Amino acid sequence: MTDDQRKKLKEILDNPPIATADDIRFSKPTDRGCVYLHGKGELEFLLSNIRKPPMIDNLWIVEIGTGKAGTTTQMAAYSALNGYGLKVMTCSVDHRPEIDKELALVKDYVNVIYYNTPNRDVWHRWQIDFPGAKIWFLFLDGSHNYAHVCNDLWAAKPYLISDARIAVHDTQIDTEYGQAETRAMEDFCAWNKRDFELMDKILETTRVIRRK
Amino acid sequence: MTKEKREKLQWILDNPAWGTGEMHQMSFRTERGVHFMYSPEELQFLLSLITKPPEGYDNLWIVEIGTGKAGTTAQMAAYQALKGFNLKVMTCAPTHKVEIEKELEPVKDYVTYYRLWDYLAIKCWQKKNPGARIWFLFLDNGHNYESVINELWAYASLVIPGGTIFVHDTRAGKLFGDGEINAMYDFCTWNPEFKIVDTKFESNKLIRRIG
Fold first, then answer.
1. Residue A147 has what pLDDT?
2. In this complex, which of B119, B146, B189 lies closest to A120 when CB atoms are compared?
3. Does the CB of B202 have a partner CB in chain A at under 8 Å?
């Protein structure tokens, strides 16, 4: 990677998401009352879970719930800047105009695949398009309810490699959706105790599962 | 199979559940308001779904989540044995009721009972029976979204193509029925190789593995 390319990626990381003010980016509630990211600290925590991957081909960061692709771009830039060689898949039902603009920022450095597809269909589609693809980091930020988190966790299970991480957003326990998401994570880990563990809570708003 | 054993198994089928008469078995209500079986026809329908398994599988099971008092367990075990299907039966429940041992005694050669939660039973069962697959899965446990969706994801992947999943107490509009139905639809949406099949009974629904 050239110095110029590095500089560009660094710029993306230094100017998180939609490139507007932090107060819009970091505290704008969505229709459901969820917020995108709760602060720079949370973004840094999220990125810190994307660690150096093992030498495996066809390894991905997967994001369910593209939003405006702000976090997608951050994850892609972070991975590229660190030389991790990960590809990125993201999906959402509603295609917002910001998505193309955001993803254009990283398209020269990272292979980012965006599906304008519901999460229930995306798993099959992704595997058909990229047979044998595996996941190193999964970020669930789609519908914040028990059903979606539970089904996405189970659907992702076969593709998560050892030591992979799953981050689930908006898990704050003082909200109904946060409780539902946390319960889905706890249930999944109970059902798959040998393979998955819920990591200690570091942030209220993002909980992480690790594949053992 | 000896004549005596056949007669014993036939007696179980002729006297559903714990041998105290049809009406007791068929209309007994649990604390949650869930019925075991709603009618003799429903029980017959359930048994009729346990069909001859395909060739080529030597470790094929009927799995029941939610033993209850083991009435249906004994019926399924006796039915498949009399038909010569050579299936084994696994059943699990975290609470041990006194009737279970009595019910399972005549069919003990065919049944493995785990006094465990669904998520623990699968681990013990798979460890003890590596490579075990499911021909008929009967979910009659938590009767809510959470339990049914997790049971489907965990157990249904072991169902072989052509196999059947029978979910009990799916009466729409009832608290437990709606959760179960939603879980079935969600599971089949995420897993298109499974399809929901409506039955003539309001109290149960099926999923078939088609691929």
1. 95
2. B189
3. no
Q: Which DSSP state fits B178?
A: H
Q: What is the DSSP string of B114-147?
A: E-S-HHHHHHHHHHHSTT-EEEEEEE-SS-SHHH
Structure tokens at A108: 């020269």
Asked if the C-beta of B189 comes within 8 angstroms of chain A's C-beta atoms, the answer is yes
Segments making up each domain of chain A, as ranges: 3-211
Comparing CB atoms, the residue among A147, A155, A193 nearest residue B145 is A147
Optimal mutation site among A93, A117, A120, interface B, most CBs of chain B within 10 A: A120
Environment class of B24 (CB within 10 Å of its CB; exposed 0-12, middle 13-18, buried 19+)? middle
Residue B159: what pLDDT? 98
Quick check: helix, strand or coil at residue A61?
strand
Closest Cα partner for B17 from B88, B84, B107?
B107
ipTM entry:
0.84
Nearest-neighbour CA in chain A from B43: distance (Å): 30
Which residues of chain B fall below pLDDT 50?
A: 18-35
Closest CB to A151 among B119, B154, B190: B190
A191 and B153: CB-CB below 8 Å? yes
CB contact under 8 Å between B189 and A154, yes or no, is no
Check CB contact under 8 Å for B182 and A147: yes
- CA–chain centroid gap for A73, Å, is 10
Q: Structure tokens of B33?
A: 């308001």
CA distance A198 to A185: 7
CB B90 within 8 A of CB B70: no
* Rounded Cα gap, residues A107 and A100, in angstroms: 10
What homologous superfamily is domain A3-211 in, according to CATH? Vaccinia Virus protein VP39 (3.40.50.150)
pTM: 0.87
